[in-house]
Amino acid sequence: MRQLAIELKRRGVDAEAFYSTVPEADKKRIQDGFLNGSPRVICATTAFGMGVDKPDVRWVINDGPCESIECFYQEAGRAGRDGKPARSILIWCDGDFKSWRDRIRQNAGSAMTDTERQDKVCKAALERLNAMSDYCESEDCLRRMILRYFGDSAAEHCDYCANCTYDPETGDVDQEPSREEKARRKAERQARRSERNARKAERATQVDEHPHETTRGGPITTVSISDVDQAIIGYVSGVNRLLGHGLGATKIVQGLRGSRGVFYVEQGLDRLDGHGSLRGVSEALVKQHIDQLARKGKLSYGDFRTLLPATEPEDE
What we know:
Elements: H1 2-10, E1 15-18, H2 24-36, E2 41-44, E3 59-63, H3 69-76, E4 87-91, H4 94-107, H5 115-137, H6 142-149, H7 179-204, H8 225-243, H9 249-256, H10 262-267, H11 283-295, E5 299-301, E6 307-309
Parallel strand pairs: 1-2, 3-4
Antiparallel strand pairs: 5-6
C-alpha cells in the first residue's frame, strides 16, 4: 500500500496509504482529509472504509479478488452512493484464487475443536470463494450475477457492466450497444416475460399439494396482516445485524418460509428469530407485503435491491 501511494504521488496523484501499522494520529488525519477532498486517492487494506460514509467516491479498484461476493459487494458498494455514475474495477489472476484457497484450508475454523464443524466452516468458505471465482470468470451480466447470488432477479443485460458493454472488435468496454443489439435484448426480455406470465397462469389453475401453503383459503386466513408485517420487519433487521448487509426479497421470503438450504444453515440464518415464522403463508403473499412495507417506508432497498430496515424510526 505504501509503495503504491508513493508511486502515485510521484506521478502527481494526491494519494495516501492507510494500513494497520499507520499511527492512529495519521489514520485520523488521512481519513478526515479524504472526507474533505484531500487526499483524493486512498491506497488501503480492507480496514479503511468501515464506518466511513463518503457519498461521492467515483472509483473503487480491488487489487485482487475478495474471499466472497458478500465482501466484494460491501467494498464495491462504497462507490457512487450519491447516485451518480461510478466504477468498480476488480484486478485478478488465477494465482489469487489459489492463494485464497490455501489460506482458507489452513485457517477456516481453526479455532474450533469440533472437527466436523471445522470441516463445514471450511467447506462453506470455499463455496463462497468459488462463487467469487465464477463471478470473475463469467461472461454474463455482472450485475445480474450479484442480484441472483443474493436471491433476487434481474434482466439478462444491464447495458452498464464490462460484460454487457464489451466490444469484441476493439476489446473496449463502456461501449453503447448498437440499436440492433438493444432490439435483440428487448425481444429476449419480452419473450422471458411472456414465459413467466404463462407459468404463473398455469400455477394459478393448479391445486396446491400442501394445503397449509395454498395462496387461497385455508389456514392463511388466520394470520393477521400485522403479524406478517412484523415478522418480515423483524427478520430483515435480524439478517442485517447478523450479516452486515441485506439480502434480496427472494432470499428473505425463503427464510421466512423456513428454508433449510445450505446458505441459511452455514450463515446461521436458520437460527434467527422469525426464520420459518411464515411457513404457512404463500411466497406471493409475503412478497406482496414486502412491497407494501417498502412503499410505506417501513423497509428500504439498498444496493442491488437488497432489503434493509427502515432508515427512519417508525411513528408511534
